[in-house]
UniProtKB/TrEMBL annotation:
This is Formate dehydrogenase subunit alpha. It comes from the Bacteria. Residues 6-61 form the 4Fe-4S Mo/W bis-MGD-type domain. The gene is fdhF. Keywords: 4Fe-4S, Iron, Iron-sulfur, Metal-binding, Molybdenum, Oxidoreductase, Repeat.
């Protein structure tokens, strides 16, 4: 018989940063199906993840009761997890016992070893309110700024370059502006896979005459729609982009008025790119000089040119330099501050923008107010009703630095909410060993992730559809996510758990409803001050900046000035810096990591979504067919990939879009956790690791 939903709840997709609005159709506390809604970012469209990736919430692996590690279950970073044998390692506990142990022991470590002995990872999968409250707990309850989340692993370098260059880490124009652009550059991003609905808007724009330039070492589906596809050699972004800027300067295509009236530092940039002729850079980046010249002219002279980029730009030891070049391109040509222009780093998770805005980063309070800024510190001390001088003026440690600090014995206890560093951190064997060596690890999650497996206490939390909160998409659009179903068993809302941990660390917080947290946020964050809970309830989405109640919100920013002290943007020159680990005779190939369409991040949700798992059930590596042939293999063969840090086996898939000599592996497969192989070398400015390049050797079998 036809199953008819008894309830429809409007919400947003839990996956990527596009932020598609959708409706959950529910019967008897079960999500039956999902439909797209007419939201500003999707207008009814959904991709395969949004449409079919919801039944993970009902998966039998859900954590439904607090768990405490058995005394006879030693921790080791070298483990093979069996989710069906959880009770060999953990025992059930009451909430009271679990919270007393979790929070009590964190407080004990703080009191015995000092405030810097604790650290916390929040999550871009959580709501703005959860991110805000979590960072407040670390700053006030732990007493340091040792709080970070996966933004460190995705766009930290973009944000550093944007803050430095134009004074704001968010996008200048929404994705939908591609439909107003004459030229769109997509570089180091594969939106067809990672931001599928955004990719449909790009394809629509192309159909209406926009010239699309795709720049990427891998040929993606989007390249089929491109006016020019520039398959540059991995790791040569700066060489290619500086060559384009050289052409723009040499041929007098700069926007002199814009440079003079709205920027500083152009002379240094011009001097720097003088040496980067297209002819010299062509053999380095693999793009011929004429194409470099043609695309530079096209970008500079169009009525509106827009740049969108992804992790292919940001996840390098020169990630900040890569982004500096993109910013400089837009500034020197005045291609910013108008509809159909600008800079758009495509955000990966549905709330990575919001979590960063809410202060889930070690150097900034909410709204990017630096912790070392006395005025900002005093403001938050007042706002949070703390005695003057309470908050730490020193930036905290970042994700990879926290793992190193555990090794060094300075960080001894952690609270991790919704992140899975045992899968997502670079050199994951090292990260797992570090997590296993902690005196105390508290993990709050919906599944027994690889990270939770190393915990002393596991606190069962709520899945996306089980809670209400706000989420900020890649466009700066704050959207309302609404609870559609009840959590299973004894699982509890994350906001409740954070408050209970806070209570055991000496804080008396009494937030009764998520709207109270949002209200506190907006009074601390000028950029969202005008967004009220009632308005979100009514309109579902409001774009920031929205400084006063009633403001419509600004889709395009930097129209008149840049939010820097001088009001002017700043050029920052960049030179070529090689990857930290280059191929050699022992490890002759290059590893590139990323995501695939059906799975999302470490796979904890999508691999438990039946439809998505059926589509992509096994770990795969994408290899150029000629490389596969030279290795003596064929599609479907098992191959072994090894770096200086680890080894995995998985299936080979022929992919003519892969560059010769480089292999692409998604990072969602626990049975072939590719981050065991990646390099933890960091970009010096943003501390983002080099996920997009390390040396490997590959064999069949
Ligand atoms: Fe969800 Fe992103 Fe797909 Fe939209 S494009 S349905 S937000 S995963």
């Amino acid at each position: 018989a036809l199953t008819v939903p008894d309830k429809q709840v409007d919400s947003v997709c839990p996956y990527c940063g596009v932020g598609c609005q959708m409706t959950y159709n529910v019967k008897d506390n079960k999500i039956l199906f999902v439909e797209g809604r007419d939201g500003p970012a999707n207008h009814g469209r959904l991709c395969v993840k949004g449409r079919y990736g919801f039944d993970y919430a009902h998966h039998p692996h859900r954590l439904t009761v607090p768990l405490i590690r058995r005394a006879d279950a030693p921790k080791s970073g070298d483990f093979t997890m069996d989710p069906t044998r959880v009770m060999d390692v953990f025992r059930e506990a009451t909430w009271e016992e679990a919270l007393e142990y979790a929070g009590g022991k964190l407080a004990e470590i703080r009191d015995n070893f000092g405030k810097k002995a604790l650290a916390g990872f929040g999550s871009a999968k959580g709501s703005n309110e959860e991110a805000y409250l979590f960072q407040k707990l670390v700053r006030v309850g732990f007493g340091s700024n040792n709080v970070d989340h996966c933004t460190r692993l995705c766009h930290a370098s973009s944000v550093v370059a944007l803050l430095e260059g134009i004074g704001s880490g968010a996008v200048s124009n929404p994705v939908m502006d591609v439909t107003k652009a004459e030229v769109v550059i997509v570089i180091g991003a594969n939106p067809t896979v990672n931001h599928p609905v955004a990719a449909t808007w790009i394809k629509n724009a192309v159909a209406n005459g926009t010239k699309l330039i795709v720049m990427d070492p891998r040929r993606s589906d989007l390249a089929r729609h491109a006016h020019r596809f520039m398959q540059f050699k991995p790791d040569t972004d700066v060489a290619m982009l500086n060559a384009m800027m050289h052409v723009i300067v040499e041929e007098g295509l700069v926007d002199k008025d814009f440079i003079e009236s709205r920027t500083i530092g152009f002379d240094e940039l011009r001097a720097n790119v003088a040496e980067y002729t297209p002819e010299k850079m062509a053999p380095i980046c693999g793009i011929d000089a004429e194409t470099l010249r043609y695309v530079a002219r096209l970008y500079a002279t169009s009525k509106g040119s827009m740049i969108l980029w992804g992790m292919g730009v940001s996840q390098h030891v020169h990630g900040t330099d890569n982004a500096r070049c993109l910013i400089a391109l837009s500034l020197m040509t005045g291609q910013i501050g108008r509809p159909g222009t600008g800079l758009h780093p495509l955000r990966g998770q549905n709330n990575v923008q919001g979590a960063s805005d809410a202060g889930l980063i070690p150097m900034m309070y909410p709204d990017y107010q630096h912790v070392s800024d006395e005025k900002a510190r005093a403001g938050f001390e007042k706002h949070w009703k703390l005695a003057p001088g309470t908050l730490d003026a020193n930036p905290g440690l970042t994700v990879v630095e926290i793992m190193d600090a555990i090794d060094a014995g300075t960080v001894r206890g952690m609270y991790i909410m919704g992140e899975n560093p045992a899968m997502s951190d670079p050199d994951a064997n090292h990260a797992r060993a570090a997590l296993a060596s902690l005196d105390h690890l508290v993990v709050q999650d919906i599944f027994l992730t690889e990270t939770a497996y190393l915990a002393d206490v596991i606190l069962p939390a709520t899945a996306f559809a089980e809670k209400t909160g706000t989420f900020t998409n890649t466009d700066r659009l704050v959207q309302m996510g609404r609870q559609a179903i009840d959590p299973p068993g004894q699982a509890k809302p994350d906001l409740w758990i954070i408050q209970e941990i806070a209570r055991r660390m000496g804080l008396d917080w009494q937030y009764k409803h998520v709207s109270e947290v949002f209200d506190e946020m907006r009074h601390a964050m000028p950029s969202i001050a005008g967004i009220t809970w009632d308005r979100l309830e009514r309109d579902n989405a409001v774009m920031y900046p929205c400084r006063k109640e009633g403001d419509p919100g600004e889709a395009v920013v930097f129209v008149e000035d840049f939010p820097r002290e001088s009001g002017r943007a700043r050029f920052v020159p960049a030179d070529v810096i090689p990857a930290a680990e280059r191929p050699d005779t022992e490890y002759p190939m290059v590893l590139i990591t990323g995501r695939q369409l059906e799975h999302w991040h470490t796979g904890s949700m999508t691999r438990r979504a039946s439809m998505l798992d059926a589509l992509e059930p096994d770990p795969v590596a994408l290899v150029h067919p000629l490389d596969l042939d030279e290795l003596g293999g064929k599609p479907g063969d098992v191959i072994t990939i090894e770096s200086r840090r680890g080894r995995i086996t998985l299936y080979a898939r022929a992919d003519a879009g892969s560059p010769r000599g480089a292999i692409f592996v998604p990072f969602c497969y626990y049975e072939a956790a590719i981050n065991r192989l990646t390099n933890a070398a960091l970009d010096p400015f943003a501390k983002i690791p080099e996920f997009k390049y390390c040396a490997i050797k590959v064999s069949v079998g």
